[in-house]
């Protein structure tokens, strides 16, 4: 009996490849950049499983090149790079990596918020460029977080972790989410957090942080009208997916001083960042590093690998996105 084949699309952190080799024949693409769609399609024609990253696009045309593919493990919480309905139709199980990157992403969210509020990166450039000539009363004046309201769009695991950190800085919390009264009561008790409509949240928040997934409903959720609703002192932070906000509308809001600043880890067309954003002093830009700690990246690859191993040894993984595809569950091995 031959082992099923797994294709690993990019360099991995930790010992996950060794773990996979116990169950699979591993084809390891030991590179740090994503494969072009043509290369990806070419390399999955006979594989049973794929472990991939958020830059790997699995649309219908790519999946059509993989007739024996039964599972795709995406090393990310979001899975907008995978056509889930098409995968389900083909009986392809899709896995993601929720939970393990919560703290790392929440930490970065607060770092971006603090940076934008206190102008840390801007001040760093000011010093490095030799512009600092001495202390003055109005030098690099920023905003304090204490007493301000943070509006969280999407109060899931990461949103809650952000709320916990923000409360420690003395912030008030409002949020939007799909939830029930029991959850609202718990969040009120734990964080003093209040659920609002999106419009009310945007109108009353001093900072807005995005933590919802990207899908058809949330694409450009924050656009021209929404930015116009925000306070002029508002700081906009996005560590979720770039396309949740209309990037052109964000640029115009910053240019027109409809909002004060932004901290961005994600962009609409990564890795391309509009030159307008790069030229703005009131914008902090980082290259999609929300989960970029050694501990978190190791945990993510372990979770993805363990999910594939579970699926091919007969147990549906807890981190399955489309459980309905389990009716065509992967077989443990090949003849």
Which features characterize this protein?
about 325 residues; alpha/beta; Rossmann fold; 2 domains; 13 helices; 12 strands
What strand order characterises the main sheet? Answer: 8-7-6-9-10-11-12
Instruction: Give the CATH class of the largest domain.
Output: Alpha Beta
Share in helix:
25-40%
Low-confidence stretches: none
Number of helices in the DSSP assignment: 13
Please identify which CATH superfamily of the largest domain we are dealing with. NAD(P)-binding Rossmann-like Domain
Give the topology string: H per helix, E per strand. Answer: EHEHEHEHEHHEHEHEHEHEHEHEH
Would you mind describing this structure in some detail?
The chain folds into two domains: 5-98 and 294-327, Rossmann fold, CATH 3.40.50; 102-285, NAD(P)-binding Rossmann-like Domain (Rossmann fold, 3-Layer(aba) Sandwich), CATH 3.40.50.720. It is 35% helix and 14% strand. The chain has a seven-stranded parallel β-sheet, sandwiched between helices. Helix 1 links the parallel strand 1 and strand 2. The protein is α/β, with parallel strands linked by helices. Helix 5 (102-118) crosses helix 7 (157-168).
């Amino acid at each position: 009996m031959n082992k099923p084949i797994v294709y690993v699309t990019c360099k991995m952190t930790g010992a996950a490849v060794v773990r996979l080799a116990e169950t699979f024949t591993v084809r390891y693409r030991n590179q740090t950049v994503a494969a072009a769609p043509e290369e990806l399609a070419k390399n999955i024609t006979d594989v049973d499983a794929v472990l991939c990253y958020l830059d790997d696009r699995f649309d219908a045309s790519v999946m059509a090149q993989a007739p024996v593919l039964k599972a795709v493990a995406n090393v990310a919480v979001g899975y907008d790079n995978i056509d889930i309905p098409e995968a389900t139709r083909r009986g392809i199980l899709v896995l993601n990596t929720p939970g393990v990157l919560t703290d790392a992403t929440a930490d970065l969210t607060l770092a971006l918020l603090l940076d934008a509020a206190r102008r840390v990166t801007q001040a760093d450039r000011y010093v490095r460029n030799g512009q600092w000539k001495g202390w003055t009363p109005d030098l690099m004046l920023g905003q304090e977080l204490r007493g301000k309201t943070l509006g969280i769009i999407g109060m899931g695991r990461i949103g809650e972790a952000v709320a916990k950190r923000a409360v420690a800085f003395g912030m008030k919390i409002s949020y939007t989410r799909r939830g029930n009264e029991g959850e609202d009561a718990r969040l009120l008790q734990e964080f003093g957090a209040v659920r609002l409509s999106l419009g009310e949240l945007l109108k009353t928040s001093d900072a807005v942080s995005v933590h919802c997934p990207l899908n058809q409903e949330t694409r450009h959720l924050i656009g021209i009208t929404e930015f116009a609703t925000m306070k002029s002192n508002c700081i906009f932070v996005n560590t979720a997916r770039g396309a949740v906000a209309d990037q052109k509308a964000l640029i115009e809001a910053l240019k027109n001083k409809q909002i004060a600043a932004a901290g961005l880890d994600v962009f609409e067309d990564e890795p391309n960042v509009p030159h307008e954003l790069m030229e703005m002093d009131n914008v902090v830009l980082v290259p999609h590093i929300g989960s970029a700690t050694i501990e978190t990246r190791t945990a993510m690859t372990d979770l993805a690998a363990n999910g594939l191993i579970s699926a091919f040894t007969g147990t549906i993984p807890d981190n399955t996105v489309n459980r309905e595809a389990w009716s065509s569950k992967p077989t443990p091995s090949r003849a």
